[in-house]
Amino acid sequence: MTLSHGSGGKATRALVEAIFAAELANPILDPLDDAALLPPAAGGLVFTTDSYVVKPLFFPGGDIGRLAVCGTVNDLAVAGATPLYLSLGVILEEGFPIADLRRIVQSLRQAADEAGVRVVTGDTKVVERGKADGVYLNTAGIGRLRPGAQLAAAAARPGDRVLVSGRLGDHGVAILVARAELDLESEVRSDTAPLHDLVANLLDAAGAGVRSLKDPTRGGLATALNEIALAADIGIAVEESQVPVAADVRGACEILGIDPLHLANEGKLLAIVAPEYATAALTALRAHPLGREAAIVGEIVSEPRGMVFLRTSIGGHRVLDMLAGDALPRIC
Amino acid sequence: MTLSHGSGGKATRALVEAIFAAELANPILDPLDDAALLPPAAGGLVFTTDSYVVKPLFFPGGDIGRLAVCGTVNDLAVAGATPLYLSLGVILEEGFPIADLRRIVQSLRQAADEAGVRVVTGDTKVVERGKADGVYLNTAGIGRLRPGAQLAAAAARPGDRVLVSGRLGDHGVAILVARAELDLESEVRSDTAPLHDLVANLLDAAGAGVRSLKDPTRGGLATALNEIALAADIGIAVEESQVPVAADVRGACEILGIDPLHLANEGKLLAIVAPEYATAALTALRAHPLGREAAIVGEIVSEPRGMVFLRTSIGGHRVLDMLAGDALPRIC
Questions:
Q1: With an 8 Å Cβ cutoff, is A16 touching chain B?
Q2: What is the DSSP string of A115-132?
Q3: DSSP string, B175-191
Q4: Host H or E run for residue B171
Q5: Measuring CA to CA, which residue among B238, B99, B92, B217 is closest to residue B162?
Q6: Contacts of A321 (CB under 8 A, 6+ apart)
Q7: Test the A interface: residue of B47, B117, B262, B332 with most A CBs within 10 Å
Q8: CA terminus-to-terminus distance, chain B
Q9: What pLDDT shows up at residue A326?
Q10: What is the structure's pLDDT at B328?
């Protein structure tokens, strides 16, 4: 990659045609104009964005391309939307290998196919050596709100159950192991996956009882629960023994002195569900390949407001706060 | 700025609330959820994205925040859309001063107000010292297609006139002078401005005759014209003497040995207009504060296809190619 690939002139066009247009071809993107014309869509739209600065770019279970699709698709899915379109902004460091870029874009394309979304518009910039770290991506996503979907963090109320779709912390540990920051043999792979289909299953089966959905990424389950507790002005009690965490992840957390509930996930769903729908919701999650290890891990309580606490296996209580400090930079 | 501001936990929330939520407040953004719910909109939508890596961050006539609004708004405007919503992705370098971030976000807010758009969703990441250059921004934009707007680079046909809305190259020279790469006293200011209103004036007055619009940013007028020549499979003849270029810009280009038509603009419009609408189009552009120096600078010809050439003031012809090489990295 050279700076001329970011000039907007001939070299940019050649790069865009050889990599992005070739790998991501679809009728909306193909004109390669500066903006994409979308077909009219009925109903409400949902709009979201994330930048991706994960280190390393390739890790067990995924890479920055797959992450850039799944992260944004999942933000749409947990808002109750069917993901439709993505934009793709690429910031490349001078000297970055074209072969790596192609591999990332191919992975991105495969994830987009899994998620049923199309990349319809994009932009490429190149910065000097030492002014980035290989490549940073940004995707923005547009989805169509499912009819009747009424999800909000503020909607949680006492008695609601807290469900998670599977084991927590895999992404965080996979990244740390890939960075060789942990002196650990581990088979843990990132869970990076698009959750749109799992969410659709859940809403089809128990939609009337689903108050709020989140994908607990940066900051982990603990941060996502604290956001809900603050937004809804309720408390959340989590049964520590019910939270699914892989043995390798638990071991890594002990070495690091961090809580697995602060680790990032990139393919897990957090659902707050009315008690009378909890069983139907759990069944719907477990019926999906991405939710086989789903569990009910806690409940909404009226006090203490705005706080999350763990009921530990030895019968105690412990405040579960948002992630503080910088334990895990560049996890996504 | 510390890495913990990018953790997704407490520090991220504090930063987002203190800077982004405070400066950009609006009812769609305010819930600070991971995705924004947009009201239903009739008609076709237009979607675009750009990343901004301009160096320096602050320059005469603008800064990266103003640029990040105008660049994306202008991509929507030249597609024939009324800009509505922006997303904002922020990649910060560890150690970046919070005061500078606030200044950038305030400028961004002011430009958004000028352009009539709202930032409705966003994301903040922090990377280690030496892995970025202060701050990089990405904005994606959604606009509503104007009824009847049928603009396409491929629509240009022989006889059409080529109009520009004012002096070319100001942004490029302002950036170069601000970088002190030019040993030059200059009062040139970037033209960074939202073009939505100028475009609306033009389409109201001469819409039926407007074939194609572009904002000639990276790669300048020359690159934008070459894109049109390729897409429409026609030739474009530019009258060199008719192209408005400020004396300071012309002088800087002579020193640098570059063509002002390869310099970036961030507040100029290129319009391809049917001949019978050319006068109405020119009048409409000149009636707007951003188009006072608009000019007809050339015409579409049938041969040579896919090429742009200059008719020079001494009666010769010269091929005007896309920008090649890396003369001007990080201009936007």
A1: no
A2: HT-EEEEEEEEEE-TTSS
A3: HHHHTT-S---------
A4: helix B170-178
A5: B238
A6: A222, A226, A308, B10
A7: B47
A8: 23
A9: 63
A10: 78
* Residue type, position B100, single letter: D
Q: How far apart are CA A332 and CA A138, in angstroms?
A: 11
**A88: enclosing H helix or E strand:** strand A81-93
Give the pLDDT of residue A327. 63
- Cβ–Cβ of A42/B47 closer than 8 Å? no
Task: Give the model's pLDDT for residue B320.
Answer: 93
Contact residues on chain B for A46, CB-CB shorter than 8 A: 35-38
For chain A, the average pLDDT equals 93
What is the reported pTM?
0.95
Low-confidence spans in chain B with pLDDT less than 70: 182, 326-327
Cβ neighbours of A75 in B, within 8 Å? 34-35
> With an 8 Å Cβ cutoff, are A85 and B131 in contact?
no
Residue A32: DSSP 8-state: -
How large is the ipTM? Answer: 0.94
- Predicted local confidence at residue B324, as pLDDT: 80
Cβ A60 vs Cβ A191: under 8 Å: no
pLDDT in tens, A16-57: 888 999 899 998 998 888 788 887 777 789 999 999 999 999
Instruction: Please answer yes or no on whether B79 and A34 come within 8 Å at the CB atom.
Output: yes
Angle, to 10 degrees, between the axis of helix B196-206 and the axis of helix B64-78? 20
Is residue B42 less than 8 Å (CB to CB) from chain A?
yes
Match 């530019």 to its residue by tokens.
B238
Is pLDDT above 70 for A227?
Answer: yes
Contact yes or no for B7 and A215 at CB 8 A: no
pLDDT of residue A149: 81
* A48 contacts in chain B (CB < 8 Å): 34-36, 87, 121
Q: How far is CA A173 from the centre of its chain?
A: 15
Distance from CA of A67 to the nearest CA of B (A): 15
